[in-house]
Amino acid sequence: MEAPAMANFMFATGIENSIPTINDGRTRVDQMEVCGHYRRWREDFDLVEEMGIRYLRFGPPLHRTFLGPGHYDWEFADLTLNDLRERDITPIVDLCHFGVPDWIGNFQNPDFPILFARYAADFAERYHWVQLYTPVNEMFICAVFSAQYGWWNEQMQGDKSFVTALKHIVKANVMAMQEILKRRPDAIFIQSESSEYFHADSPSAIGPAERMNSKRFLSLDLNYGRRVDSEMYEYLLDCGMTKEEYHFFLGNRLKQHCILGNDYYWTNEHRVHADGHTCASGEVFGYSEITRQYYARYGLPVMHTETNLREGPNGDEAVNWLWKEWANVLRLRNVGIPTVGFTWYSLTDQVDWDTALREQNGNVNPLGLYDLDRNIRKVGEAYKQLIRDWRDVLPAQSVCLVVPVVQPSHAGRVDAREQEATAARMAARPVAQTASADEVGR
C-alpha cells in the first residue's frame, strides 16, 4: 500500500462559519451568509486552489446542520466536504463557531456537552476520511463574549455566567474529541484559541493584570487536563464549578492528540488599569513572545491558526502585517519551538467584525485574501508568493518536524489497523517533533 503523505508545514486559510445570536437570541449573525459563501462555495474553493493552499479551516454551520438530537441536514456538508475531498484539500473541520442552534439555547445549557458530543460522533461516522478537527473554536473568547461581556448568545455579564459557559464549552470540546477518536483513532485536534496578554498600566494595576493573565489560560488548562493555579481554582469553585466537574477535566486528558493552535491579532494585547478596566494596547510583545508563554505551559506543537489586518489607505498595511507574523513564526522555529502551520484568516473579507459581530451594520471589513467580489487583494498576492517561496524550504530545514496527516486522496487506503497503529505512536509522543533547532531563513 502506498504510504500516505506527511504534512511538513501547513499553509492554510479559513472560511469563517461564525453563528452567534444577538438581540436576546432573536437575531442570528451568520458569516457564511453575509459573505456569500452559501452561494459561491465552489468559487471559494477554486480560490483556495489558486492560492496554492492545501489546508482549509472550514466546517458546516452548526445551526443549519444539527436540527435536533439525532436529526441532521447533511446536504451542504456533503456538497462542500466531498468537493474538498475530490480536490485533495485537507479540511481542518470547525464544528462549533461561537453559537449553537436555537433548540439548544445557549452555552448556559448543561446539556450542550452531551448533545454536541453526539453530533461530533455522527459527523465523524459520516465523514470517516476527515482527520483534522477544531471541535469548538476559541473557547475562551466564546465564553467571554457570550457570558462575561454580554455581547452574544446568552448575553450575560458576570463571573458565574462566564464560568458556567466555559465549563460547558470545554467539556463539549473534550467529549467531542473522545467520540471522534472512537471512530478515527488517528484524529488530530488543532485548537484555535486566542493568545492574550494583559499589561499593567501602573503599579496599582499589577494585581488585576496578574489575575487576567492567569484567567487567559483557563480554557486550555481545562482542555489539556492541566491543574490550574490556586487562585484560579478558588475562582472556579466560587463561581459554581464543582470539584467533580473540575476533576472531569483532570481525568480526561487528550493532550497527546492535540496541536496548540493559537490566534493573534493586533487586539490580543491589553492595557490594564488600576480599576480593572482594559483597552487595546496594540502589539507590544507580539506573536512569538506570547506564543513562547503558551508553549512553555503546554509543551505542544504550535500552529498559528488565525491572523489578519485591515487593508488601509496605503494598501500595504495587511501585506506588512503578513510579513511580520511570518517573521514571528520563523523566529519560533529558529529557537526550537515546533511550529507546524500558519493561517491567514480568512479567505474573503468579513462583515461587521469591526463591532465584533454585536451589530448588523453591513460593514465590509477588508481583511481577506480576496474581497467579497472574489478579487484578490494585495495580501492575497503576497501570501501566494510566500507559500511558493517557503513551502519547499521548511521541510528541508527540519526533516523530522512533520504532522502525520492522511490526505483526503489517501483516506480510503488507510485501514483501521493502520489508524490504530498511528494512534498508538501518537499516544507515545507529541503530534509533531523537531530534531533540531536549526535556523531557517537566515
UniProtKB/TrEMBL annotation:
Domain of life, source organism: Bacteria
Pfam families: Glyco_hydro_1
PANTHER family: ALPHA-L-IDURONIDASE (PTHR12631), BETA-XYLOSIDASE-LIKE PROTEIN-RELATED (PTHR12631:SF10)
Name of this chain's protein: Family 1 glycosylhydrolase
High-level lineage: Bacteria, Pseudomonadati, Pseudomonadota, Alphaproteobacteria, Sphingomonadales
